[in-house]
Amino acid sequence: MKKEKNSCGGCFCDFYDDLRGISPSFQSISIAENPVPLEVGPVPDTGGTFLVNSITLTRIDRDTCCAHFIVVTSFNPPVVVPGFPAGIYTAETVIACDKIVAFSPAGNE
User: What is the pTM of this model?
Assistant: First the structure.
């Protein structure tokens, strides 16, 4: 059976084709159909208790046309939240490249 190549181009992937030796950081990323951009700073409507500390691109997967990011957040609530202790949280976030409609690199690029 012939394997079809997934076409990935004309999107966010084109800006970061080769990530060898670099891990670009971003100030913000706007995603289609998402009313609030993912951006470094306080998360809206959390009273400043939930912050995005960094957004770092780790991989572009051209087979799935997705960008993989590590998002580091911190949570510092004024009261104890059962099951969600204060601290620093790290998560991998995968976004379809064609859904990224705008982005702002951090000052290190």
Answer: 0.85
